[in-house]
Design goal:
By secondary structure, the protein is α+β, with helices and mostly antiparallel strands. It folds into four domains: 39 residues, no CATH class; 263 residues, no CATH class; 45 residues, no CATH class; 41 residues, no CATH class. Helices cover 42% and strands 14% of the residues. It is built from 18 helices and 13 strands. It has a three-stranded antiparallel sheet. Strands 6-5-10 form a three-stranded antiparallel sheet. Strands 7-8-9 form a three-stranded antiparallel sheet, with no helix packed on it. Strand 3 and strand 4 form a beta hairpin. Helix 6 packs across helix 8, helix 6 packs parallel to helix 13 and helix 10 runs antiparallel to helix 13.
């Protein structure tokens, strides 16, 4: 009986939970760049799948394993992902109605779920932040549209889905999504019921993770540098050293040296070291300055910011950038145009195609005016021009300007006594005659 129990070939030992987890990820090892030793199945574990599960699949040259969890321990990566996800999550989403070649703001029922409350337990800001963070860390962000019933075209809400619970697969020419919640049975959804935000390198099903694809070495180096510095200070900030002398030590000198070393070790590596017999310390390990730990950490900050498209000054790295003046303002505007916009456009296209797949009457668009606003003086100078300064034709009213500044209309405002476009400026002689 014991021999039968220990015979691994006679009895197939499988894990139902692990098998279900692996069966939901068809071709996952191939897309991760691993060489599979066998086919995915619900009852066996291949070598590549085991390395992925243990975190050994994405190990950097420095020896640190780079995953979504370990990357968040690097302050630069955390700040970049927090900044991008937070900025997108807090942007208001406007719903507009097409009227020929014009468009007008629409009062639509979907505005509430896109801007305030996505579903039970999820505010819209938290839901958008969760999806964008999943996209930045795993390569794909997923969400599910909530409908009152299966065959309904109406959407009553939406919720984000953890990346490890969603597995896209092809059913003929159709892409479907297998959802495997941890506490519920798995189910399959059509593309129309899923929010899918892919990243660079999208193959029609999934996208590679920016963390483990482009930023793996930079984040791995940062993790190793942090670990080295932590171990250095935990050891009393002492370097490894050796004792050297040109003479031969006698027995008494060796006993004194041994006692001095033991006393220093018992004191946590601190305290004076009594040397005799011409002994002098010689450093064995490379110090932090020679290893350029500080320069390495500064470089990894710039490298991580470059991958996420975030200006370094926006995560507190102002080594080569001034924190004042119009230069930072222009870089902030560039952050909206060249970093956020590459996320905002796919979000708008995904929402439009899923909420209004047939009728093109309505569409959504992020309102980025608040992030692109200039300083107070520049805005007020622009408003003066918009109201018709120096006899120019006005193209805005005072109430429209107040709306841009989040101020209510004011019927008591009066226009100044300046000339308008219909009454051109008078010549100097005409002004004297009028006086």
């Amino acid at each position: 009986m014991p021999g039968k129990l220990l015979n691994l070939k006679a009895i197939q030992h499988t894990s139902r939970v692990l098998g279900s987890w692996l069966s939901a990820r068809n071709g996952g090892t191939e897309r991760a760049g691993m060489v599979a030793l066998g086919e995915n199945s619900s009852g066996s574990l291949t070598m590549s799948e085991l390395t992925n599960l243990l975190g050994a699949a994405h190990r950097s040259s420095s020896g640190a394993a780079v995953t979504a969890d370990t990357a968040m321990r690097v302050s630069a990566a955390y700040a970049c992902m927090s900044l991008v996800a937070g900025a997108i999550a807090t942007l208001p989403i406007g719903i507009y109605e097409r009227k020929g070649n014009e468009r007008d703001s629409a009062d639509h029922e979907y505005w509430w779920m896109l801007n305030e409350k996505a579903s039970d337990g999820w505010t819209s800001s938290a839901a958008w932040e969760s999806i964008i963070l999943s996209k930045l860390s795993h390569g794909d962000g997923f969400g599910e549209w909530v409908r009152p019933r299966f065959s309904s075209n109406r959407v009553t809400g939406w919720k984000p889905l953890p990346r490890h619970t969603v597995q896209p697969f092809k059913d003929g020419d159709t892409v479907r999504y297998r959802i495997t919640p941890g506490d519920k049975p798995s189910y399959v959804l059509a593309r129309e019921d899923i929010i899918h935000l892919p990243s660079l390198g999208f193959d029609g099903l999934t996208s590679p993770s920016p963390l483990t694809y482009a930023a793996m070495e930079a984040i791995g180096t940062a993790l190793s540098a942090q670990e080295h510095i932590g171990q250095f200070f935990s050891g009393g900030a002492n370097f490894d050293y050796a004792l050297k002398t040109d003479s031969k030590l006698d027995k008494t000198q060796l006993e004194q040296l041994k006692a001095s070393l033991l006393a220093r070790a018992q004191n946590g590596g601190r305290g004076p070291l009594i040397l005799g017999g011409g002994l002098t310390p010689a450093q064995v390990s490379v110090n932090s300055k020679d290893a350029e730990i500080l320069a390495t950490r500064l470089f990894t900050v710039e490298e991580i910011c470059r991958i996420f498209g975030v200006p370094p000054f926006m995560v507190g790295h102002t080594d080569k950038t001034t924190s004042w003046g119009s230069g930072v303002e222009n870089m902030g505007i560039g952050f909206v145009r060249y970093t956020l916009q590459r996320h905002l456009t796919p979000i708008a296209q995904e929402v439009n195609s899923k909420l209004w797949p047939v009728r093109e009457r309505f569409f959504v668009e992020h309102i980025t005016a608040a992030l692109e606003r200039g300083d107070l003086k520049a805005r007020y100078d622009a408003y003066r021009t918009a109201l018709g300064r120096s006899g120019e034709m006005p193209f805005m009213t005072a109430d429209e300007i107040r709306r841009r500044e989040n101020m209510p209309p004011n019927t008591n405002l009066t226009m100044n006594g300046g000339t308008s476009a219909e009454q051109p400026d008078q010549a100097p002689g005409e002004q004297q005659e009028a006086a």
